[in-house]
Amino acid sequence: MSRQLKLGAFLMATGHHVAAWRHPQVPANAGLDFAHYKRLAQIAEAAKFDTLFVADSVAAPTQDIASRMARSDHFEPLTLLSALSAVTERIGLIATATTSYNEPYHVARKFASLDHLSGGRAGWNLVTSDNAAEALNFGRDEHIGHAERYSRAREFHQVVTGLWDSWEDDAFVRDKASGAYYDPSKLHVLDHVGEHFRVKGPLNVARSPQGQPVIVQAGSSETGRELAAQTAEVVFTAQTSLSGAQAFYADLKGRLAKYGRSADSLKIMPGVFVVVGQTEAEAQEKCETFQQLVEPEVGVALLGRMLGNFDLSKYPLDGPLPELPLTDSGQQSRQKLLTELAGRENLTLAELGRRIAGGRGHYSLVGTPAQIADRLQEWFEQGAADGFNVLVPHLPGGLEDFANGVVAELQRRGLFRTEYEGRTLRENLGLARPQNRFV
Ligand SMILES: Cc1cc2nc3c(=O)[nH]c(=O)nc-3n(C[C@H](O)[C@H](O)[C@H](O)COP(=O)(O)O)c2cc1C
After folding, report:
1. Are 159 and 67 within one domain?
2. Which residue among 306, 336, 356 closes a domain?
3. Each residue of 217-245: pLDDT tens digit?
4. Is the CB of residue 79 less than 8 Å from the CB of residue 113?
5. Is the Cβ atom of 96 under 6 angstroms away from ligand 1?
6. Residue 408 pLDDT > 90, yes or no?
């Protein structure tokens, strides 16, 4: 069968557009409405999406402008996806969990549990936290710096995956006749002692259906790419142009060989923000409806956060983006992308805030299903992507539009599945089941 693209449904309460919650067709209380999420999961699964994807931050914004944004109340991703595992059967479940404000044992245990609960559909989006405010909830005055975060992340990953191999696949014999619950020769105690962690093990969860949940990484700086090359099986990234995405794709795939990995063992899935209409004019009009709802101060607050936790409220809205130091707390790759965008198009602060109000800097497409499919096909066939993590302005409407229009078009072109190939997330993504390192 010819190569087909992978799709993730990036769920976010009322939708990705910062003003979506104010739209008449959007349930403003969606962030904590399980029925809403259940519907999203079922729409995505009916459309054969590979995964649901849930981002996270372990802090709520506190600046005054936060009271005008729907960003302060939402479900914790692992809890949400555990509940969704019970109302879905085939779709993958990727939750974000930070390596900066967690302990590896907790993370290993929860994701192994989700993998068991879901019959092998769990994925861990390993992030290092791009929100400086998180530090204040974990006994620190300041966020951990960029280099230190990645150093901790690397070791965190080693410990988590080591714990996932605590038990061989057939360790639990549970033989009532002999009284042997498990075979002690198939137990492996990790005994990890490192720079950041000391973890004895073993994990108190049997090896999970996928062997190990799928490792997803979202970070695209130099350090982020190196960690991805070493550890990730899926990479979520923000790219704005075909040429930029091609360069990122070639760079990251090119780093795999030195870790003994094949190009196929890592799937690169840029984010794409999509507004779909029956006609191009209708799509533009839909997009404009959301844009009209953005207060300039809200757009600029979002911009400041995405540039790496800067307060831009003291700068004139109609002035240029001020010179900012390299962020040490946020995403360096996103800061670069947004700064380049502002310079290239000579945008004022308010214009840039408005520009990213929907897709936060991700590649954005507004058009008919065929127009959108053309661009996705181009990126997929020209070495820029193995698939896409799809962001829609509002939920559930935007996801329905994408499923009914764009997915159907991709299927007609033979670029996307019409039935799941496998039972587990690994099987559907075409990723091998990892060997237990102790065997
Ligand atoms: C596309 C993308 C999505 C991300 N999503 C999250 C997230 O949901 N939660 C989070 O704490 N960090 C997120 N991050 C940031 C990561 O934590 C990253 O490890 C770190 O902040 C630095 O990113 P960088 O390597 O681009 O500098 C994301 C990064 C990218 C590029």
Report:
1. yes
2. 356
3. 998 899 999 999 999 999 999 999 999 99
4. no
5. yes
6. yes
